Amino acid sequence: MGLYRDEAIVLRTQKLGEADRIITLLTRANGRVRAVAKGVRRTTSRFGSRLEPFTHVDLQLAEGRSLDVVTQAETLAPYAAELGSDYAKYTAGTVMLETAERLVVEDKEPALQQFLLLVAALRALAGERNPGLVLDSFLLRSLAVAGYAPTFESCARCGSEGPHGWFNPAAGGMLCSTCRVPGSASPGPETVELLGALLAGEWAVAESSLPRQRKEASALVAAYLAWHLERRLKSLAHLAR
After folding, report:
1. Whole-model pTM over 0.70
2. Residue 49: what are its φ and ψ, rounded to 5°?
3. Sequence ranges of the domains in the chain
């Protein structure tokens, strides 16, 4: 079997047999990778907590037929330990991990931008920023990287310059009064400004927003995400808002 090294975020784990686990990873060079960590559930395992969700790791893997095999693991950043003690941060983080796995749809297809975005988001989440703002910014930006960028400044249908008063996930963002379709939401102008700031990573604007604007923006982001993923994320049900 050929060996290779890569840097990764652990997205998900599942039990395999009596002592092994299947680890789903988002890697820097190889995109989404599924690998077996042999004996990792034993107390004597060399890997232990290094292969838990949220952990940023440097790995050596052996190529396999269907699943690769983890042969070495070194922790680069233990985000699992930092997020596990804070419910709001932990639940926001689980939504990030599930979103990243869903948006990177093919195994072994490079997804460098998604990887870098997830690393930066987990670092911000482990810091002092508001978990809800970090999550919504990550969701909008990861959707944009995947080719589903919403528009907040111009009409998503005719392209006319805003500000506009209607939001529709299926249409791709804000709509003018002429292009408005039934079922569109009508967010306040401050909420639209917040959404634009979250997409652009303008934290000064985002952090000056009011709680009601953040709540309204979060609902719109969740609706936009659900539309493009075609079904709601399981982890959203546990999200602390």
Report:
1. yes
2. -75, 0
3. 3-77, 85-238
User: What is the CATH topology of the domain spanning 3-77?
Assistant: OB fold (Dihydrolipoamide Acetyltransferase, E2P) (2.40.50)
Secondary structure in 3-state letters for the chain: CCEEEEEEEEEEEEEECCCEEEEEEEECCCEEEEEEECCCCCCCCCCHHHHCCCCEEEEEEECCCCCEEEEEEEEEECHHHHHCCCHHHHHHHHHHHHHHHHHCCCECCCCHHHHHHHHHHHHHHHCCCCHHHHHHHHHHHHHHHCCCCCECCECCCCCCECCCCEEECCCCEEECCCCCCCCCECCCHHHHHHHHHHHHCCHHHHHCCCHHHHHHHHHHHHHHHHHHHCCCCHHHHHCCC
Report in angstroms the alpha-carbon separations of 60 from 27, 31, 45, 106: 12, 15, 16, 21
Architecture of 85-238 per CATH? Answer: Up-down Bundle (1.20)
pLDDT in tens, the chain (241 residues): 699 999 999 999 998 888 889 999 999 999 999 999 987 777 666 776 788 999 999 999 999 888 999 999 999 999 988 898 899 999 999 999 999 999 998 999 999 999 999 999 999 999 989 999 999 999 999 999 999 999 999 999 999 998 999 999 999 999 999 999 999 999 999 999 999 999 999 999 999 999 999 999 999 999 999 999 877 788 887 776 5
- Do the Cβ atoms of 10 and 100 come closer than 8 Å? no
